[in-house]
Amino acid sequence: MAPKDLAILIGAGPATGAGIARILAHPSHGNYAVALLSRNPDNLNTLTKSLRSSAPGSIIETFPTDTKPENLSKAFSDIRKHASFQNLKLRIAVYNVKNASVKPFEEETFDQYMESMQGVSPIPVKKPQNDIKVPNN
Question: What is the pTM of this model?
């Protein structure tokens, strides 16, 4: 079955990212073509093999990158040009980042949370938002 549209997952790790990707890509669940972005190419390849075996027929492509704006721009450009994603509209973009906080959720204030994200999540939002736009057909 052809995917209904495109989903991009930034932070495609072996735990939360894998679970998100599995649901998005599986033809009986999300049925999205999925672009996985992560810093570690080896982990991406391992994850992709696992996802493809658990969701036969799914479209999953990998784009190793870090969060530097110029590298994300290149990854988004590569996604836009990739043959697997032609004629698909971007419907979902998930930014799944590791959080350095070790406090229980109920005890952490917003300011403490934001402080814990410094250095972990340096992704500037506006630049990737502009790059990620995929023309609607």
Answer: 0.76
